[in-house]
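Handout for the seminar on molecular recognition.
Each group receives one record of this type.
Step one: identify the two inputs.
Step two: read the structure output and locate the region that could contact pyridoxal-5'-phosphate.
Step three: write two sentences on what you found, then compare them with the reference statements printed after the record.
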Amino acid sequence: MKRIPVSGPSITEKEIAYVTDAVTNAWYANANVYNDRFERAFAEYHGVRHAVSLPSCTSALHLSLLALGIGPGDEVIVPDCTWIASAAPVSYVGATPVFADIDPDNWCLSPQSFAACITPRTKAVIAVDLYGNMPDYAALAEIAGQRGIAIIEDAAEAAGSRYCGRAAGTLGVTGTFSFHGSKTLTTGEGGMLITDDEAIYRRVMVLRDHGRRPGDTMFQNAEVGYKYKMSSLQAALGLAQIERIDALVERKREIFGWYREELGNCEGIVLNHEAQAVHNSYWMVTVILPEWLGGKAGVIQALSKQGIDSRPFFSPLSSLDAYSASPMARAARARNTVSYAVGAHGVNLPSGLNLERADVARVGAAVREMLSERVPAVATAHASLV
Ligand SMILES: *Cc1c(COP(=O)(O)O)cnc(C)c1O
């Protein structure tokens, strides 16, 4: 029985041709051709002035915080349920991450919890487009605007999603993307920062190149910076991917549609939500399972026995050893009831771009079987003896 992987990209002749051309020709005078083309195509798709190719989304978030001048003594609000890369750069710059609760429907930052977490030290909020979904940006922008708080949009999981017709990544002062092999668009590893803000863009360009000023040819570094670049081979792969983004998002939505056919009528479970204002690119199909199944770890194990790979919904950051000792995490554990309820029972189902309809049928049957197994404890014990 073929194992069904949890995620992975779509690579075609186009990607192979571009990367082959890059490794053959993108040297000497042509060294930057693919980075320029990828950045221009990415900026054009998103309707923004600037796109900067980077080694990762983590570095894009790091540069966003640095360019906004955020540092020691500042607080940055982050949703409790997200990949740690959303929050780790806050620590890199010496600021303090504050973990706000998520919304029970879209699983993204709750505007109410965001407002409740604001203090005089709050300088920015990192809004995360979780699993392709998007938070209520109208509400977030209103709260942030009143207090002079910058919105950074972590769109790592949401390339191709839209909020009120606006592309994911364009709802903050900067938008950040990941091209890790698991994401909707991939360059193997890689990232992008997009912005319409000229000052932020200029600052990012200096910081990402060891503190070199624009046009510096004499290696006269103006300050100590970082080395955050993407190779031309990765950029060639990325160019092919952004040229195919509409087809890739359409496929993600088709895969979600298959899951809805398989699981949409099951009682007691919840699949990804799509609000009226949102066009969801469904990076990861996710199911929240009933409490009686006993939590996500057992579900993942049971699926694995049937040759199906899955992943846990992000556990709240405030529950992780990485943060558990911080006073902010202690406060979050008491406050973020939705993060703890959803985080305990959510599982990401196989969502790779190579999935076939029959794979989703297999996953659907496995989940339905699990849900049908609710029997009294005595009967379960007896059955295991037979
Ligand atoms: C994948 C991911 C990142 C990090 O991306 P890298 O390119 O691995 O640095 C950041 N935020 C979220 C929400 C992600 O899913």
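Reference statements: The longest strand covers residues 122-128. The chain has 14 helices and 14 strands.
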